[in-house]
């Protein structure tokens, strides 16, 4: 008896926000290891699947995921970010932090009497936070993102990396990030072999997120296709009007 195998591609977002560049470098390093650490043969060895799964990582800033890729969730993502200032988001993470704060507030505010929607139910994510424990606001930004994503239904896989710039010995920030990466691969592999989320579910996640982004940021732009349709209609109407004017002008000139 033979077991049928399938071949498919899994896109994984590796999202970061970084003030000094450390989180960005960690994201780039993780992406560079994907071809070997999550190759089809390694995934088969780690999980026992017969499927041939090709993982394609895409690294970008957290805010670019919202504003450029328009919240196009995949069912698995990795987040690497630090804190800045008094527990705020670093460069490239302001909008995403606003989104997480809005989600967090929805679940903290019970006055409406409604249970907030599990916007990201079905999504899995891995996360590593960077910071410096000599500051009292150490790890506040990664903590808020982690909590907010759990509240809206996402499930974290693997350990929550906690890389401290003031760490010593085996707790040096670079060593902690390296150890977290080594441990995370098997967790990511177990997710990519699960049945993919439907296109309908991914679209629902996207539109629910877009709705919140529009509410907290009036400048947030998302084209759902309706505007292009109305634009095409206007262009057709304009072309008809120009043609009509040309015909009338032709008739007028021939009469004179």
UniProtKB/TrEMBL annotation:
Domain Flavodoxin-like: 12-185
PROSITE patterns to which the protein is assigned, alphabetical: FLAVODOXIN_LIKE
GO molecular function: flavin adenine dinucleotide binding; FMN binding; oxidoreductase activity
Keyword field: Flavoprotein, Membrane, Transmembrane, Transmembrane helix
Transmembrane segments: 234-252
InterPro entries per UniProt: Flavdoxin-like, Flavodoxin/NO_synth, Flavoprotein-like_sf
Pfam name, any one: Flavodoxin_1
Cellular component GO terms, alphabetical: cytosol
Protein name as annotated: Flavodoxin-like domain-containing protein
Species whose genome carries this gene: Entomoneis paludosa
């Amino acid at each position: 008896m033979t077991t049928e195998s399938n071949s498919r591609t899994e896109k994984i977002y590796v999202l970061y926000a970084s003030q000094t560049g450390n989180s960005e470098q960690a994201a780039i390093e993780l992406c560079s290891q994907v071809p070997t650490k999550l190759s089809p043969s390694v995934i088969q060895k780690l999980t026992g699947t017969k499927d041939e799964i090709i993982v394609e990582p895409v690294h970008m800033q957290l805010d670019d995921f919202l504003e450029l890729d328009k919240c196009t969730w995949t069912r698995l993502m990795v987040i690497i970010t630090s804190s800045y200032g008094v527990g705020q988001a670093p460069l490239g993470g302001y909008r995403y932090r606003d989104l997480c704060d809005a989600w967090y507030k929805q679940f903290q505010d019970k006055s409406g009497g409604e249970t907030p929607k599990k916007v990201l139910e079905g999504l899995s994510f891995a996360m590593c936070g960077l910071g410096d424990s000599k500051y009292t606001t150490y790890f506040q930004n990664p903590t808020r993102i982690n909590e907010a994503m759990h509240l809206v239904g996402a499930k974290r896989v693997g350990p929550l990396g906690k890389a401290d710039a003031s760490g010593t010995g085996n707790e040096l920030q670079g060593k902690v990030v390296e150890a977290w990466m080594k441990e995370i691969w098997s967790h990511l592999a177990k997710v990519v072999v699960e049945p993919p989320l439907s296109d309908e579910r991914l679209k629902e996640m996207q539109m629910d997120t877009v709705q919140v982004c529009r509410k907290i940021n009036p400048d947030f732009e998302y084209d759902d296709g309706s505007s292009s349709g109305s634009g095409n209609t206007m262009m057709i109407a304009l072309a008809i009007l120009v043609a009509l004017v040309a015909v009338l002008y032709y008739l007028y000139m021939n009469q004179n």
